[in-house]
Specification:
Shape: elongated
Radius of gyration: 30 Å
Oligomer: single chain
CATH architecture of the largest domain: 2-Layer Sandwich
Distance between the termini: 69 Å
Strand content: 5-15%
CATH topology of the largest domain: BirA Bifunctional Protein, domain 2
Helix content: 40-55%
Largest sheet: 5 strands, antiparallel
């Protein structure tokens, strides 16, 4: 159940006409009164003898009783209360009870207060009710409405429990502004699934992902085909910006512009500038220029950056963690924008869901997320990836690691009691898992085939390595459908000089595996990245990725073993 306090107005009759009228698109059906401050309140919807003017005079009577100079300019209060789409249709009696609880909770008409404000609740659709009130009490005083929106939300949570309705996750005021009803109706009228506000929010997010400067940001907006207006100070500095879709026009035929802050709290120009202006002690002021790279190399670097971010989330303070989570959103936007068609839809859904997880009341300590922002920048500048070969396989590798980032973000938000953000991060993780399945299907099938055809002696040797490195998880890993793919990867690592047992031990020690749906898949990508193996099994067998150094020289030396694990088993 979603309550919304609307802007206060000055004309009671105007709101009454809207509530009882047909609606902007004739969506109002059978408008009628379900409850009011007085049971004898006239209902222009069901009583042919009642008029809008009679209802207006009754509600405005305490206002008009005041001297003109004491009357509030904005005296009309308006609250809508909407059920969730999956909730059952409630009868008028239930909506009447809900309306009474809302006016009591918000301070409009506290229980037992005979001199409270006058109000009326009008229902003109199955799923919601509107409450109109005038902000002068019968005793001439003003009501106490401190934090009425928050109190309405709290009461809505109680109503959901009492009526067995869908439990809406409580918000904290950091969410992006929802499209208005008029915007949604306009989108429906034009056959569009999303409103211009939502389209613009996504376009601006993508334009800022990994951007290194203000000019680059505005250049990306222009390249995306948006109309841009900058607000310029007398000094010539840019104070703010607004954007519009070329085809979105108002009744006068003019483009409908939205400021960044109206799209999302962190898309105002001052908040965007924080990504470039604040630094940590050991990072430069902005991301470096993009490295010469192709899509597959950019995805490998994104995987490494995501791994580093996980370690930061595990051991840093809240401001630094918030910065990593915010930058994760940039990586998701960049991945969605540059990935192949068969993964793009789920990646876009993941980026859209995670957008809510990227903001909270914990202010991000900008500058600490340099590696992730550089990864997002590399992804954008490397261009679109193919859906197969090394591009496709490294996409699976990157998604696999970003899933852990989304889960880590969800866990942190849950600990901080950021309910909406935690739920959004979990939703993003679900979309990422679906994208992973699409990206990993072909390379994992090839690895599975190769692992299934390994000599039995090698299969036993690699199984022994798993039991030595991961004794508590070995039985589960060896029973997973992905075990042959892991065996093939261990064999590739052995071929290029790694000790499989040592490599497995280090891969598992980097982070827990229990939250993974398929531990064997996670280990495949960790090992292939750590050993510098091609992500695509067809690229080569047992050959390092050219130009990619997954580990430093000392790390590689530590992984190269000299014991029996590197000697081929005797055939039997």
């Amino acid at each position: 159940m979603i309550p919304r306090v609307h802007k206060r107005g000055s004309e009671t009759i105007g709101l009454i006409r809207y509530l009882y009228g047909p609606g902007i698109h004739e969506e109002h059906v059978d408008p009628h009164l379900v409850a009011a401050f007085d049971p004898l309140t006239p209902d222009p919807g069901r009583n042919p003898g009642a008029t809008y003017k009679q209802l207006q005079r009754l509600l405005d009577q305490p206002v008009n009783a005041l001297p003109v100079g004491r009357r509030p300019k904005k005296h009309v209060w308006h609250l809508s209360v909407r059920a969730s789409p999956e909730d059952p249709i409630l009868p008028d009696e239930d909506w009447a009870a809900i309306a009474r609880r809302m006016v009591a909770a918000t301070g409009i008409a506290p229980d037992g207060d005979d001199a409270a404000c006058r109000w009326a609740a009008v229902r003109h659709a199955d799923d919601h009710v509107h409450i109109i009130a005038t902000l002068v009490r019968d005793d001439g005083r003003r009501p106490r409405l401190h934090n009425e929106a928050r109190r309405a939300q709290a009461e809505a949570r109680l109503i959901e429990a009492d009526y067995g309705l869908r439990r809406v996750t409580p918000g904290d005021g950091t969410a992006a502004k929802r499209p208005t009803s008029a915007e949604r109706h306009k989108a429906d009228r034009h056959g569009q699934q999303r409103t211009p506000r939502e389209e613009l929010r996504e376009a601006v997010r993508r334009s800022v992902a990994g951007a290194a400067s203000e000019e680059e940001f505005f250049n990306r907006l222009a390249a995306a085909g948006l109309l841009i207006r900058r607000r310029i100070a007398p000094s010539g500095d840019t104070l703010g910006y607004t954007v519009a879709l070329p085809g979105d026009r108002n009744a006068k035929g003019e483009p409908v512009f939205y400021s960044g802050s109206k799209l999302a709290p962190d898309l105002s120009l001052p908040r965007i500038r924080e990504r470039w202006n604040q630094t940590s002690d050991n990072t430069s002021q902005q991301p470096a220029q993009p490295s010469p790279t192709g899509p597959s190399s950019a995805r490998r670097r994104a995987t490494t950056a995501a791994w580093q971010a996980l370690l930061v989330i595990d051991h840093s303070d809240d401001g630094v963690i918030a910065a990593q989570i915010a930058a994760t959103g940039e990586v998701l936007d960049a991945l969605a924008h540059t990935s192949a068609a068969h993964t793009r839809h789920e990646l876009q859904a993941a980026a859209t869901a995670f957008e809510r997880a990227s903001r909270s009341h914990v202010r991000a300590a900008r500058g600490h997320e340099h590696a992730l922002r550089q990864a997002a920048r590399d992804l954008v500048h490397s261009g679109s990836a193919f859906g197969q070969g090394e591009d496709g396989a490294t996409t699976a590798m990157a998604i696999d690691m970003v899933i852990f980032l989304a889960i880590a973000a969800a866990n942190w938000h849950a600990k901080k009691q950021h309910a909406q953000q935690a739920e959004a991060a979990h939703q993003a993780a679900a979309h990422l898992r679906a994208a992973y399945q699409a990206a990993a299907r072909h390379p994992m099938a090839l690895l599975h085939q190769r692992g299934s055809h390994l000599a039995p002696a090698w299969q036993r040797q690699h199984a022994t390595a798993v039991r030595q490195a991961l004794p508590e998880l070995a039985d589960q890993i060896l029973a997973e459908p992905g075990w042959p793919a892991l065996a093939a990867t261990l064999d590739d690592a052995r071929t290029v000089g790694h000790n499989p047992t040592t490599l497995l031990t280090q891969a598992a020690a980097r982070r827990e595996l229990n939250s993974a749906e398929r531990m064997s898949d996670v280990l495949v990508w960790r090992l292939r990245r750590m050993a510098g193996l091609p992500a695509d099994p067809q690229n080569s067998q047992g050959r390092r990725v050219g130009g990619t150094h997954a580990l430093s020289s000392p790390e590689r030396a530590a992984h190269i073993g000299t014991g029996p694990a590197n000697n081929p088993p005797r055939r039997r």
